[in-house]
Amino acid sequence: MLVTMADALSQVFAYHETTKHHLNRYARGPGGLDWATQPDPFRRYVGASVIPLEHLKPSDHPLYEPVFIEGKLPIQPLNHRSISQLFYDSLALSAWKQVGDVRWSLRVNPSSGNLHPTEGYLVCGLVDGLCTQPMVCHYAPKEHVLERRVEFPPETWKAMTAGWPNGTIWVGLASIHWREAWKYGERAFRYCQHDVGHAIATVALAAAAMGWKATLLDDLSTELLASLLGVFDPQGAEPEQPECLLAVYPQRESCAVQTLPEDVIVTFKALSWQGTPNLLSPAHVDWPIIDQAAAATRKPVTQKVYETAMPIGKPLEVRSAPVSFRKMVHQRRSCLALDGQTGMTRDALYQILRKVIPGPDQFPFNALPWSPLIHCGLFIHRVQDVDPGLYFLARDPTKLDPLKDAMKKEFVWEKPPACPDNLELYRLSTGDARELSQQISCHQEIAANGCFSLGMIAEFEGPLRKYGAWFYPRLFWEAGAIGQVLYLEAEACGIRSTGIGCFFDDPMHRVLGLTGWRFQDLYHFTIGGPVEDKRLTTLPAYSSTQNDVKESDQGRFDLP
Ligand SMILES: Cc1cc2nc3c(=O)[nH]c(=O)nc-3n(C[C@H](O)[C@H](O)[C@H](O)COP(=O)(O)O)c2cc1C
After folding, report:
1. What burial letters (b/e) apply to 30-53, b meaning 16+ CB within 10 Å?
2. At what angle do helices 80-88 and 551-558 cross, to 10 degrees?
3. What is the pLDDT of residue 234?
4. What is the mean pLDDT of the chain?
5. Measured from the CB, is residue 191 less than 6 Å from ligand 1?
6. Whose C-alpha lies nearest to ligand 1, atom 9?
7. How far, rounded to the nearest angstrom, does the alpha carbon of residue 482 sit from its chain's CA centroid?
8. Is residue 222 within 8 Å of 299, Cβ to Cβ?
9. In a mutational test of the pocket of ligand 1, which residue from 498, 502, 508, 538 has the highest number of ligand atoms less than 8 Å from its CB?
10. Helices 346-355 and 472-492: angle between axes, nearest 10 degrees
């Protein structure tokens, strides 16, 4: 069916409106969980040959802070070990949890409801110790292996990589909407996109820890991406929707091109792909509105649509906190409850917020090729020497005036005490915002019991009309990437955080005085002192017999 650009845009607006949660009515969901059809959390390509990856214990180096800035770490060679590390630090399991007989896995990349709709793919040329032919692989996190879907000729690789730096590889991401819709129904398409954003950030940061850089390659169409990743069958009950492709290459290298040749990518479809996707559920429920949203947001081929390749801002100052980056990545968890007591210093608040603002050469936001479009409305509860109340952070200072213009006229817009010059953080109104933030976040106590919670406010209608309906997921990707930085920052501060996908959209708009489609709230977050659930036992992500690597070997690999 032919969907015109205007139809696609109205379908996206309709999807977004329909899937809002309201104070008196939630977006349509399944109304209960049908455990008999619970999707398998692990996609496998049955029959594809398997390439085991190394299991690398999180090492003390690199330190957490330098990872966020380009050019601070030595460039690691591309080989079996570094590819293992890339996936281990981005999409692998991080632990198993157990209560009684029930066991479930956690991953480095968070996911709403722990449903993990995001699948990862590797497209690479010859890699020492990994492969002797260029190939496309699916990453299987449970076993930490690559499933080789197809090999292709070196000439094709050469044609694909013309203009790209030596040592370039590609990481593709795809979503299985059913996995999320099983639990959340119509709103699931949004959650899949948040999860893609989190995964983009985990891949970008894992790459950065090896002196590499990830850039979203956003010229390809959805159809070409499907061809490259071998993700076909859009008609089945469990289709995988190709989402995005990240070029990963050594930092400080510049690319002569920012695209892949269409005529080469299109040929991938005809290759002889190995492996059949496993069936995730024995039966399915249709959510036509999700299929419509997926169809409406399919991307056409575009060429250099974004004028500003790099966001504006000053360079990030590096803190000296001596924590290990990989330990933070692997210990990251969502808090199920917050203690309502732990506070933070205002310096900690400012440092966390500074990290979510894009700056030159700053990971992970340098992976996104558009200028920042997401800002944050904060409910500050417990920050030393900062009055509790409603605050606003403009992630792009050039948008401050339009934001002020769109919000309530009575807001004071005053910088809090000692707020750094390069942080556009403003107090809007003073007062205890705990009850309000809890109510807005679907009455979840975690929003009130932290040091602060926030809502991510997207410039919505303008970018969608400018770029088209295909840009809708990208707004969630940016929000998800911010979420991932908040998760890690909370860990680095010794506290904890949780992404909040369940919030009441329009009530949050009313709090800020926003009307119409110009700005929309896309994602919430909370940070505070966690209450551990003592009923849960934590088990290692992988059994110790799995191809374990000694700590000393690891030090040799990644010590600067
Ligand atoms: C997009 C997104 C939305 C989420 N929404 C909520 C939420 O509304 N309430 C909540 O308690 N947890 C929420 N979570 C936390 C997830 O349930 C959690 O990430 C998942 O169970 C995996 O656990 P982990 O983060 O510890 O790995 C959300 C997470 C993400 C990534």
Report:
1. beeeeeeeebebebbbeebeebeb
2. 100
3. 61
4. 93
5. yes
6. 500
7. 8
8. yes
9. 498
10. 140
How large is the angle between the packed helices 80-88 and 188-208, nearest 10 degrees? 140
Quick: pLDDT tens for 126-158. 999 999 999 999 999 999 999 999 999 999 999
Residue 500 Cβ < 6 Å to ligand 1: yes
d(CA 223, CA 265): 10
| Cα 500 off chain centre by | 14
- Does any ligand 1 atom lie closer than 6 A to the CB of residue 45? no
Give the pLDDT confidence score for residue 6 in this predicted structure.
Answer: 86
State the Cα–Cα distance between residues 143 and 147, nearest whole angstrom. Answer: 10
| Ligand 1 pocket residue status of 112, Cβ below 6 Å | yes
| DSSP one-letter code for 21 | B
Q: Is 113 in the pocket of ligand 1 (CB under 6 A)?
A: yes
198 CB under 6 A from ligand 1?
yes
CA dist 411 and 456 (Å) reads 18
Q: pLDDT digits over 523-552, tens only?
A: 999 999 999 888 999 999 998 655 443 333
Check if 334 has its Cβ closer than 6 Å to any atom of ligand 1. Answer: yes
DSSP state of 529: -
> Cβ contacts of residue 414 below 8 Å, gap of 6+?
426, 427
Please state the atom number of ligand 1 nearest to the C-alpha of residue 198.
Answer: 31
Please compute, for residue 54, the number of CA atoms within 13 A of its CA located in the half-sphere on the CB side: 19
Nearby residues of 388 by Cβ (< 8 Å), 6 or more positions away: 380, 381, 382, 430, 431, 432, 433, 434
pLDDT tens, residue by residue, 252-279: 888 778 889 999 999 999 999 999 999 9
Answer whether 496 contacts ligand 1 (Cβ < 6 A): no
Query: Which atom number of ligand 1 is nearest to the Cα of residue 480?
Result: 1
Give the predicted TM-score (pTM) of the model: 0.96
Mutating to test ligand 1, I would choose from 107, 109, 112, 338 the residue with most ligand atoms within 8 A of its C-beta, which is 112
Q: What digits encode the pLDDT tens for the residues 55-93?
A: 998 899 999 999 999 999 999 999 999 999 999 999 999
Establish whether residue 76 lines the binding site of ligand 1, counting it when its CB lies within 6 angstroms of any ligand atom.
no
What's the CA-to-centroid distance between 477 and ligand 1, angstroms?
Answer: 15
Tens of pLDDT, residue by residue over 387-396, are: 999 999 999 9
Atom of ligand 1 nearest to the CA of 109: 27
Q: Where are the beta strands (DSSP E) in 185-236?
A: 212-216
Listed in sequence order, the residues at least 6 apart from 463 whose beta carbon sits closer than 8 Å to its beta carbon are 370, 373, 471, 475
CA-nearest residue for atom 7, ligand 1, is: 500
Pocket of ligand 1, candidates 19, 96, 111: which has the most ligand atoms within 8 Å of its Cβ, to mutate? Answer: 111
Among the residue ranges 187-201, 222-236, 518-532, the one predicted with the least confidence is 222-236
Structure confidence by residue, pLDDT tens digits, 430-458: 999 999 999 999 999 999 999 999 999 99
- Answer whether 499 contacts ligand 1 (Cβ < 6 A): yes
Atom of ligand 1 nearest to the CA of 441: 8
pLDDT of residue 361: 87
